[in-house]
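FORM 12-B: Structure-to-Sequence Request
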């Protein structure tokens, strides 16, 4: 595993499978994380006050090593973001 432009990548990766694919993004404002001894399960959901259910649209299952790599990547990106745009307000301080 190596870091390239702040991203973790497998060293043995010979081609980029996403090179020709069009990626479609989804908005997530609710996250659920579960784990066991061998893997982390991360759910990305949408949840709104006027609805009583959460809409799961992506589940990522990964190893603890890659979960930690994701954490470190997010941590660095959040630090860089706050250096550029200021401190992110906590969820409880944001008024709807």
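FORM 12-B RESPONSE
SEQUENCE OUT:
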């Amino acid at each position: 595993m190596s870091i390239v432009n702040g991203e973790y990548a497998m060293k043995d990766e010979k081609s980029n499978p996403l090179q020709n694919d069009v990626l479609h993004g989804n908005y997530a404002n609710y996250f659920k994380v579960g784990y066991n001894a061998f893997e982390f399960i991360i759910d990305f959901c949408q949840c709104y006050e006027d609805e009583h259910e959460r809409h799961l649209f992506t589940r990522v299952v990964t190893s603890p090593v890659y979960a930690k790599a994701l954490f470190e990547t997010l941590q660095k990106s959040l630090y860089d973001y706050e250096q550029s745009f200021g401190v992110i307000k906590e969820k409880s301080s944001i008024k709807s």
